[in-house]
Amino acid sequence: MKYYIEKKTSYSFDEAIQKVTEELKKEGFGVLTEINIHEKLKEKMDVDFRKYRILGACNPPAAYKALQAEDKIGTMLPCNVIVQQLSESEVEVAAVNPIASMMAVENTSLGAIANDITERLERVIAAV
DUF302 domain: which residues (predicted)? Predict the structure, then answer.
């Protein structure tokens, strides 16, 4: 099982960010954090890295259920979604696979939550 769900697109980088953000909203997610890796690596290390953004997406009802079931699950929240420029004409959008992540947590009550979030993220990625 892969630890991520991905799709390559012909959207521009900025269009992909906008599209994935819209699709996340449709599935009940908000973007809590946004990390611009390209800018951070340039700022901290003077490295020219490709356009690469990490979006920290959260579905509050699912996060609440997960936190009630497992108090340390916050170490795996929010769900990270990346957008990266692969070439001039290709951008990839990828999200963590919650089912794969939850395999490391020995709490069977998280299974249904992980399945639900995985299905939502799969729909988001497919719609981009």
Answer: 35-98
